[in-house]
Amino acid sequence: MEKNDLIRVFARGGVVSPGDMKKILETAEDFGNETIHFGSRQDILFPVNIRSKTILDHTFQAIRTEYDFDGNNYQNIVSSYVAADMLPNTSWVHSD
Fold this sequence. Notes:
Blueprint: E1 6-10, H1 18-30, E2 37-38, E3 43-47, H2 53-62, E4 67-68, H3 86-89
Antiparallel strand pairs: 1-3, 1-4, 2-3
């Protein structure tokens, strides 16, 4: 399987709610997948045999999730969520 054969489903800030994860898993299953892959860029990957942008747009708009399948869409890995309130409450971490 090549990278270009995969759909990238973006997980904003690397966090996915259980409900959204269920929708993503159901969508992957609808496309004939039994497994998914977790990427290193805050994304979930799975192959699809349908390359129609119209069908993919409709599917992912229905679950309100952003995706990419042609490699032209990039998502930054910028998040302060995982570091929120860490320094004041964590004695072993210092800002310097």
